[in-house]
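Sample intake sheet
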Amino acid sequence: MKNTLEAKMRTAFSLIFIVIISLVGMIMFHMINQSFRTHSDQTLGHVVEANLDLLHNHLDNLDRFTNLIANDPDVQRAVGYRNRTEQIDYAIELKNQRLVHERLQQLTLVPYIKNAYIIGESGHMLYSYKKNVRNEYNFYDAPWFSDVIENDRFSDNYFTGFHPTDYLLNHQEKQTISIIRQIQNTFLFAPTDRSYLVYDIDLSAILLENTLDQDLNILISNGTEWVYLPESLTLSHQQLMAVGETLSDSDVDTVIEEPFGQGADLLVRSNVIRPTGWQMIGVKKMSSVTAFEWNLLTVILTVIIASAILITIVSGLLSKSMLVPMRHVIDNFHQISKGHYDVTFDKSSSDEIKELSDAAETMVHNITSLTAHLVDEQKKVSEEQMRVLQNQINPHFLNNVLQSIKALAINKESEKISHLSTLLGKMLEYAVYQPYARVPLKVELTYLEHYLAIQNIRFDAHIRLDLVLPKKFEDILIPKLLLQPLIENAILHGLSGKKTGQITLLVEEEGDDLVLVMTDDGRGMSADELQALRVSLDQVDASQTNIQSIGLANVYKRLTHEFTRAAYLAVYATEGTGTTVVISLPKRLLNQHKEENDDTICRTR
């Protein structure tokens, strides 16, 4: 992508709006999806509660019918007569049968009771309702019945699990669930006599039939087996096992994730059926929720993509309409940069472009009118700065030398006076004539030796100057009086108060640069002093430098004036050890001597 303002604006507008639309879309997706899941969970809860309330009502009615029949005196008398009498009087028995049948006929009001029968102490059927039971069948031999009787696992009504109906004459029905209630009457027979009222019930006739949501199923479990499974069950065997594993708690409200990504997740809601302790479980497949999520996500992504395309097109058109006049202005600036100032700016666009065009025309006019003036002024300033920087022999130094000659004269040290006067004359001659010229490096070093000799005579010191100059660099031309401020700074600051000391000047090449390294063994500087000195090198204005104090700042300014940033000056110091000043000059900007060899001149003064 081009790094243009138009491209940036188009990209920025597109990204901002796409991100906003995406965030809004994701928030809507989350909210709608969460609402749909919550609605599904609430629907399942309502269905379970409705079936649970319905089942409780029917079981309460069933309990009342059971108590009514089991406690009826005629039923108890008839059952007691059959249990106690070996030789039955059929006249009495016919009367008893009529009375019991009248009581059992009340069960027609309970449509979900498929069969009812009374079992005597012998384990055989005494009386029955609806279906006929085989006379020779002994219920005590049936595991589902004998287990209840032998362990006395009921107080009022006991609900069995599914069991076979092989006791019926026409044994063609599926397994059923039964309710067992003991019949007792202490006035007619001993309390040890046992008789039982048994109902076969159809739970499917009680529960609400689910016709609205085919993915919703109502199940009933007694904790060990399924008591009720609807005929329209849409759950697989694996799903039933997964639901059964979650029923360890009395109340369950969870989501079962489908293993291995097969099918849909299951939403499960369970409540306890009060009289039985069974659990009514509502199970809803999340396939409809998943399908809704995918449809919703597809719609949102489609809207986002369509919006992104539309936003990209609109942002491109908008940015182009805004930036066409800007391109014209840019083209004019390109012409100005090439030196063509006779350009015309379009002022028929927006107020901003017109203001920019007016400013550009004013700028062009100022450029053409001030260029010559600025060049002249810059030349004058440069020459003035150079005059200040080149004025290396300050009055203070000259006065100190003359005072030293006067002191020597008083002491009648003529030899030192002669030597000092000769050295001073050579320095004045070197500094005054052709101050702007470049000189060979060996000549500049000779001047340094003269300067050091004067200072040794003045301070009665013995400061040694060690010069290491490869012969091939002797005739390289450098700015005149460039190094004198360095040695002056070393004597006045680094070696101040010392009678002896050493200054080393090493000249070497480093890549494409000529490097001059001056080191003294003076007091050095602290870290704070060194940092302050480095900062001052960039802050000092050479044009305002005091003529009486020429230092490192002047050297630095002269380097930048003559060599720009191709040359540099660096200062390194350690407190109590000494100071090192490094000057790097680009060899390509220096006039080199034609003869080159590897001989090195080393001398000490």
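Comment: The longest helix spans residues 5-70. Residues 524 and 575 are 4 Å apart (CA to CA).
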